[in-house]
Design a protein that fits this description.
By secondary structure, this protein is of the alpha/beta class. The protein has 3 domains: 188 residues, 3-Layer(aba) Sandwich (Rossmann fold); 67 residues; 72 residues, Beta-grasp domain (Ubiquitin-like (UB roll)), CATH 3.10.20.30. The protein is 37% helix and 18% strand. The protein contains 14 helices and 14 strands. A hairpin with an 8-residue loop joins strand 8 and strand 9. Helix 3 crosses helix 7 and helix 6 packs across helix 7. The longest helix is centred in the middle third of the chain and has 20 residues.
Length: 402
């Protein structure tokens, strides 16, 4: 699973990325700082299954703090873009190509209105961020439309002459974007093209088809960044009312980054996603008055003010568990929760909601799936068949024939 961090230049994308990963990326106040995509590991936060067994887990990947498990997912921060990206303006072509691999998108916008359409700094509240919500979706729709139109006359003739199934040919054309025959069939129905002869399709028909497929294959959440700037919250509320079908989360990537850096250096104790932090004895001795004032500003103007604290953790969790509809499953044994090295519940897998016990077996290893006999719910000790639908945070043992 890969989540793409996207948006206009200079809205705080790289700050958001670094806040999620603590990766070393260049951050500056001018357009196109990010030229090549940055790859890193972010973490979704869940309630760890170890709490129910009164043990402390030892994650092989990620980490666990006070029974809050942080499960790794891959993030990619791509080059910023400007209107006309699909025509190659700015870093447009590279931006769109880099997005091919993303399963979901986090669209970072400057909700304070202090970055214009070109990605240049302007006076706060002087630019309407609603323009950014619209233009990114338009650019992505044009991108899909361009791929669909590539060789369109040839495809249309092939479908007409060979009586090929429309959804099969077009799904192959967009296969690199995660489009399969079932999704294409649904898209054709939504665009009222099921009974329309292919050679009679208009450019508008193709664009409508492309827009639907983009929404399905690149689901998006909007990170309303720089929420701590005075007046930004009013913009945030207005955008939620203006775009009721979008998901917005108010956030301050700069605040999250400051808290994580301070926690990393032992100056404060902070768990990502929490609405509180505590200055440590070491921090009390080392932090300057200016730094303590900055931390107090974050506490008063961000953590105490907004329902999800800095909002950064909530953005990633929402992308994972709502947009992509995933659940977490732990491998474990009824008689032993630890692996051969003594690590307790070392692994946690992300699976699509509705996954079966057999799906989980194959997710761990092909041999487990091929030799599946049954699964056992470690919490209840109940035997499960291969078609059993797993629930979020299940701990499952796989029993095989060898």
């Amino acid at each position: 699973m890969i989540v793409g961090i996207v948006g206009k230049a200079n809205v705080g994308k790289s700050t958001f990325f670094k806040a999620m990963t603590l990766a070393s990326v260049e951050i500056a106040n001018y357009p196109f700082v990010t030229i090549k995509p940055n790859h890193g590991m972010g973490f979704v936060r869940i309630d760890c299954a170890d709490k129910g067994f009164n043990v402390q887990c030892n994650p092989r990947l990620g980490y666990c703090v006070e029974h809050n498990r942080f499960v790794p997912i891959e993030l990619i921060d791509v080059a910023g873009l400007v209107p006309g990206a699909h025509e190659g303006k700015g870093m447009g072509n590279q931006f769109l190509n880099d997005l091919n691999q993303a399963d979901a998108l986090v669209h970072v916008i400057d909700v304070s209105g202090s970055t214009n359409e070109k990605g240049e700094p302007v006076k706060p509240l002087s630019y309407d961020p609603a323009n950014d919500v619209r233009f990114l979706e338009i650019e992505l729709d044009h991108w899909y439309h361009g791929i669909l139109k590539k060789g369109w006359e040839r495809l249309a003739r092939q479908i007409q002459q060979e009586h090929s199934l429309v959804q099969r040919v077009l799904a192959k054309q967009l296969g690199g974007l995660g489009v399969d025959e079932d999704l294409m069939k649904l898209a054709l129905k939504e665009a009222d093209l099921t009974d329309k002869v292919v050679i009679h399709w208009t450019n508008d028909d193709l664009f409508k088809l492309a827009a639907f497929l983009r929404k399905k294959t690149k689901p998006m959440i909007i990170a309303a960044n720089k929420i701590d700037v005075p007046g930004a919250y009013d913009n945030y509320e207005r955008l939620k009312n203006q775009f009721p079908d979008r998901i917005f989360v108010a956030c301050s990537a700069e605040s999250e980054l400051a808290l994580k850096e301070a926690n990393k250096h032992g100056l404060i104790k902070y768990i990502p996603g929490n609405k509180t932090f505590a200055i440590t004895p070491e921090g009390d001795a080392k932090l300057s008055d200016k730094q303590k004032t900055a931390l107090n500003f974050i506490k008063t103007n961000v953590l105490d003010k907004y329902p999800f604290g800095t909002g950064v953790q909530q953005v990633l969790n929402t992308a994972t568990f709502e947009l992509l509809d995933l659940i977490t499953i732990f491998p474990g044994g009824v008689n032993k929760l630890a692996d051969k090295d003594g690590n307790v519940l070392p692994d946690c897998f992300l699976l699509k909601k509705g996954s079966t016990a057999l799906d989980f077996a194959f997710k761990i290893h092909t041999d487990l799936g091929n030799n599946f006999v049954k699964a056992i719910d470690v919490k209840t000790k109940r035997a499960l068949g291969k078609e059993h639908i797993l629930q979020n945070n299940d701990v499952i043992e796989i029993v095989t024939s060898k």
